[in-house]
Specification:
Elements lengths: L10 H14 L4 H28 L6 H37 L1
Helix pairs in contact: 1-2, 1-3, 2-3
Length: 100
């Protein structure tokens, strides 16, 4: 019997990388919190996407194709985090300019 793949394992690495994005960019505390919070729905949507792709093509349920699909979707998740950080960084600059 094959053990089921737990795609929600994306959550911990995504949350960690969200913090890395925020700290490396010198973001304020509220941006770090939003980035951490954004990791949760991104991980859930990524898992749903993996399940949908696996349902469409049974070849993606195991082996190398399964691993490559997981890696590709994780990279999409990282891109999503980067996009969210970019938007938040622009918003943070706008707030900083409005205060001065």
């Amino acid at each position: 019997m094959v053990e089921a793949c737990n795609g929600i394992r994306y959550l911990l690495p995504l949350a960690f990388l969200a913090l890395v994005f925020a700290y490396a960019g010198g973001a304020k505390a509220w941006v770090r919190v939003v980035m951490m919070a954004a990791a949760v729905p991104i991980a859930i949507l990524a898992n749903a996407l993996r399940v949908a792709f696996s349902g469409l093509s049974p070849a993606l349920t195991s082996g190398t194709p399964h691993t490559l699909l997981g890696t590709a979707i994780f990279l999409v998740c990282l891109g999503s985090l980067a996009g969210i950080y970019h938007v938040l960084a622009k918003f943070q600059v706008t707030i900083g300019v409005a205060k001065n």
